[in-house]
Design a protein that fits this description.
The chain is α/β, with parallel strands linked by helices and 275 residues long. The chain is 40% helix and 20% strand. The model has no long low-confidence stretch (mean pLDDT 93). Bound molecules: S-adenosylmethionine.
Length: 275
């Protein structure tokens, strides 16, 4: 299977947009509730969800005048968070067609289509002119991309001089291999993890100055333990992660196991494009 088909097969569920729309229709027109509540369990496909997006945006100095490229935008949860919390304009680039369709439907439903544009495409060949973005945002995407040099050079190309790269990603830990399946890969075919030090070096060699670098692994494990000790809500959720990702329980269990066993680490980094 070629790479694009493999990514679509990993993430895309058939008729996702229609299924989500049917659920949103059933939940009525309260936009705030759709954003804050109904979509919350599924729309941010990375560890620590919405809080991680807001922290990354603050760390990179996002403001409403900025134009942001969100690479591998998933079903658009991070873009909606950035648009609603910071008021900026976002272009989401996403390889998975079903996710692009679903994102457009949701954005329209919650009234954010004027702030967020979705482009279907590959981060290895970005369909954008040079120097048009203030910020490139990328959360939990690099794990799927083998040619990281190319994504970084493309990111550099589309950023304004002194533009910033905001990165939140999973890296390889000191123990290998990882347990599969995980959310980003059912098997090694589309799993391309660098260690944190390899990635850090590569970014600096790719023409970026490091502004901050943080290992979030310990904090994430503590958060998982805290969440486990809390009683679970008995109210059934209208949308669950199973709609977006196949077999989420097994994948989540493996992610936690990989974190605990030192097989994966989570990194947040902010970089500025060199002149
Ligand atoms: C784990 S999800 C994270 C989605 C989103 N960033 C979020 O945090 O909610 C990874 C996303 O990256 C997308 N992706 C993977 N490789 C890509 C590529 N080469 N170009 C564009 N998108 C890609 C996948 O289709 C998937 O939606």
């Amino acid at each position: 299977m070629n790479y694009e088909k493999a990514i679509n097969a990993q993430y895309g569920q058939s008729d996702l947009g229609k299924k989500i729309l049917a659920i949103l229709e059933g939940e009525g027109l309260d936009t705030a509730r759709l954003i804050q509540d109904i979509l919350a369990p599924i729309e941010e496909l990375h560890l620590r969800g919405r809080s991680a997006t807001i922290e990354l945006a603050r760390a990179v100095g996002l403001n409403e005048s900025m134009r942001v490229l969100d690479i591998g935008c998933g079903i658009g949860g991070p873009a909606r968070t950035l648009a609603s919390e910071f008021g900026c304009h976002i272009i989401g680039l996403e390889l998975c067609e079903e996710y692009c369709n679903a994102t457009e439907i949701i954005n329209d439903r919650v009234g954010l289509s004027n702030k967020i544009e979705i482009r279907q495409g590959n981060a290895l060949n970005m369909p954008f002119d040079n120097e048009i973005f203030d910020i490139v945002f990328m959360q939990h995407v690099l794990m799927n991309i083998e040619n990281k040099e190319r994504v970084l050079s493309q990111s550099k190309r589309v950023l304004y001089p002194k533009g910033r790269l905001a990165l939140n990603t999973i890296c390889a830990g000191s123990i290998t291999p990882i347990h599969f399946p995980v959310i980003w890969a059912n098997n090694p075919d589309i799993n391309f993890l660098f260690t944190a030090s390899e990635l850090r070096q590569l970014i600096s060699n790719s023409g970026f100055k490091e502004l901050s670098w943080k290992d979030e692994t310990k904090e994430i494990l503590e958060g998982i333990e805290r969440a486990r000790s809390k009683p679970r809500s008995k109210n059934p959720q209208p949308i669950s992660l199973g709609l977006i990702v196949a077999d989420p329980s097994t994948k989540w269990r493996n992610i936690v196991r990989n974190l605990k066993e030192g097989r994966i680490e989570v990194i947040q980094g902010i970089f500025e494009k060199n002149q």
